[in-house]
């Protein structure tokens, strides 16, 4: 099964899509694709067949999203917690993932046609080396595409992601790229695996479970959360429309909360910069108080230098991550 299915919506689906698109539409939708194993039990088939059907449903859902002008999708494909499942099931999931990423590499022309950029978010070092290499090749091959984005969370939990972001900031301080006073909520957000993406507007979980299961906890604090009872392999276009409608009904308060949070972050950073400048002036001044204009100049200079340090650090961090993937692709080419 292809990652991107060709095809248009039928007439009724098109009419419904056009009605929905008259209102505010989510630009980024995240899915917890739950229910594959229950689907397999329901249909009296092997678990692996349930997971295969789940992937096929993802391909179909991506087509719906493209037709609805939703240009970014994030999916919870494999949690770190899933390693606790039986060895046979984990091995089967690793093999399925390997097959799908190999297939993706064979579909580069189709991915380029649609401008699909594939990103894999998670701790790849927890995966078998050959799967790491296939993932790296897929990510590197599509990273210049910019029309739509598929983020696959694999070997991922949100707590692991946040802990890793803290380690990245500590690395930046150790390397002298940033100061400890540069560490902030906003900077931590830029160090997450998902730093190249806007936060999801809408998160959908299937199968009737009403929990996030350690998925995008940081990123979805101001997202619309929709929990649907349908099992993932049975998901339909109409289930997606229902979730979007719920997003539209809650759009105004969600947008207000996002704006307030953004303003609060900016104010918090401004106050932190002022405190740092006051401390510097106290330690390096000549004992004479500065007038308001010179204090303002000192604040502007400090803010500019901090922003430059942070951008240099984020550039170095991106280079480190890109080099990790490039090294994996080089290893694959030599194998």
TrEMBL record:
Pfam families: Prenyltransf (PF01255)
Keywords of this entry: Endoplasmic reticulum, Magnesium, Membrane, Transferase
MF-aspect GO terms: ditrans,polycis-polyprenyl diphosphate synthase [(2E,6E)-farnesyl diphosphate specific] activity
Enzyme Commission number(s) from the entry: 2.5.1.-
Required cofactor names: Mg(2+)
Recorded topology in the membrane: Peripheral membrane protein
Top-level taxon of the source organism: Eukaryota
Biological process per Gene Ontology, one example term: polyprenol biosynthetic process
Matching InterPro entries: UPP_synth-like (IPR001441), UPP_synth-like_CS (IPR018520), UPP_synth-like_sf (IPR036424)
Broad EC category: transferase
Catalytic activity from the UniProt record: n isopentenyl diphosphate + (2E,6E)-farnesyl diphosphate = a di-trans,poly-cis-polyprenyl diphosphate + n diphosphate
Keyword Endoplasmic reticulum listed: yes
Pathway terms, separated by semicolons: Protein modification; protein glycosylation
GO cellular component, one term: dehydrodolichyl diphosphate synthase complex
Coiled-coil positions: none
Localization per Swiss-Prot or TrEMBL: Endoplasmic reticulum membrane
Transmembrane segments: none
Oligomeric form and interacting partners: Forms an active dehydrodolichyl diphosphate synthase complex with NUS1.
Family: Belongs to the UPP synthase family.
Function noted in UniProt: With NUS1, forms the dehydrodolichyl diphosphate synthase (DDS) complex, an essential component of the dolichol monophosphate (Dol-P) biosynthetic machinery. Adds multiple copies of isopentenyl pyrophosphate (IPP) to farnesyl pyrophosphate (FPP) to produce dehydrodolichyl diphosphate (Dedol-PP), a precursor of dolichol which is utilized as a sugar carrier in protein glycosylation in the endoplasmic reticulum (ER).
Stored HAMAP family: ISPT (MF_01139)
PANTHER family recorded: DEHYDRODOLICHYL DIPHOSPHATE SYNTHASE COMPLEX SUBUNIT DHDDS, DEHYDRODOLICHYL DIPHOSPHATE SYNTHASE FAMILY MEMBER
Protein name: Alkyl transferase
Organism of origin: Oncorhynchus mykiss
Lineage: Eukaryota, Metazoa, Chordata, Craniata, Vertebrata
């Amino acid at each position: 099964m292809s990652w991107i299915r060709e095809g248009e919506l039928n007439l009724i689906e098109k009419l419904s899509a056009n009605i929905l698109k008259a209102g505010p539409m989510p630009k980024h939708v995240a899915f917890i694709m739950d229910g594959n194993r229950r689907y397999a039990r329901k249909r009296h088939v092997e678990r692996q067949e349930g997971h295969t059907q789940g992937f096929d449903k993802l391909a179909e859902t991506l087509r719906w999203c493209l037709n609805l002008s939703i240009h970014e999708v994030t999916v919870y494909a494999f949690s770190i917690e899933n390693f606790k499942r039986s060895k046979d099931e984990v091995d089967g999931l690793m093999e399925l993932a390997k097959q799908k990423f190999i297939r993706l590499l064979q579909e580069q022309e189709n991915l380029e046609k649609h401008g699909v950029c594939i990103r894999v978010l998670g701790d790849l070092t927890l995966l078998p080396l050959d799967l790491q290499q296939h993932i790296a090749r897929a990510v590197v091959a599509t990273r210049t595409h910019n029309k739509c984005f598929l983020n696959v969370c694999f070997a991922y939990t949100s707590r692991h992601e946040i802990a890793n972001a803290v380690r990245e900031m500590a690395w930046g301080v150790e390397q002298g790229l940033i100061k400890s006073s540069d560490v902030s909520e906003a900077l931590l957000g830029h160090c997450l695996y998902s730093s190249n993406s806007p936060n999801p507007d809408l998160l959908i979980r299937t199968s009737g479970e009403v929990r996030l299961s350690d998925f995008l906890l940081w990123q979805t604090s101001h997202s619309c959360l929709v929990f649907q009872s349908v099992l993932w392999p049975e998901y339909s276009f109409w289930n997606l429309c229902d979730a979007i409608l719920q997003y539209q009904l809650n759009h105004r308060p969600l947008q207000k909360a996002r704006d307030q949070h953004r303003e609060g972050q900016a104010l918090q950073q401004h106050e932190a910069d002022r405190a740092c400048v006051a401390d510097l002036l106290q330690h390096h001044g000549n004992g004479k108080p500065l007038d308001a204009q010179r204090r303002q100049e000192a604040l502007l200079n400090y803010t500019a230098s901090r922003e430059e340090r942070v951008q240099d650090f984020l550039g170095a961090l991106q280079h480190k991550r890109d080099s990790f993937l490039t090294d994996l692709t080089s290893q694959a080419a030599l194998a």
